[in-house]
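Practice record 12: protein with zinc ion.
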Amino acid sequence: MYIDTHVQLNFSDYDLDRDMVIGNAKKAGVKQFVVPGVDHNSCRTAVHLAHKHTGIIFAAVGYHPYEAPKNPDFSYLETLLKDSKNKGFIVAIGECGLDYHEYNGEVAAGRKDVQQQLFLNQLNLALTYDLPVIIHCRDAYQDVFKVLEKLPKIPQGVFHCFSGSQQDLRIVEQMGLYVGIDGNVTYSKQLLFVVPHIPLSMLVLETDAPYLTPVPHRGKRNEPKYIPLVAQKIADLQTTSLKSIMDATTINARALFKLPEVKK
Ligand SMILES: [Zn+2]
């Protein structure tokens, strides 16, 4: 079985056929899902889905760097975390991080110092609640490392949709963090060079659906049922078997997010 450790089943893209999407993923062997929040509403929906699909869907709560300029209501995350009903349903903080990607010469997620503060606050939340963190990092590896090093200790966590260099990979490994690989492994030139070097012990699978649809389905909405395509491409790049990728990533995901076994 597979675990999709980053899938936005909480987005409106799935409002019309969410149960079918989950059912089709299960048929493809994808049996558990981690659904991260990016803003207030998507956090609420992620937690709701975790309650509706107990033991199958697990929520992460956090604010994406794109929220930084909006000064989001940080206390809402704590409200969700403090609610005893949500214990075991919220398995991580995130997604949170830094996004320095530029559109028309400007950082789309706004001021870097504001992003860094929002990220740091969420890392501290992860330490306080003893939860792993799902890190979004785009064009910002050096600064993400700097913010992490400010902490009294580095929380457990994953660089979701890893897109860094081999050197970045080494630093992530030294920090004891995982990397998530997505459908863009089927077409990204950068990942062709890096993925062969990722130790199996630090690898988890994700789709980031509805985004990053793998070949041969590019141009269509992504779905968690495509996880085996991601795993197969990684297996090809690492010249190993599909089963070894499936087994290792499932063990890693279960360890990282402390997920229970799937009930038969
Ligand atoms: Zn992300």
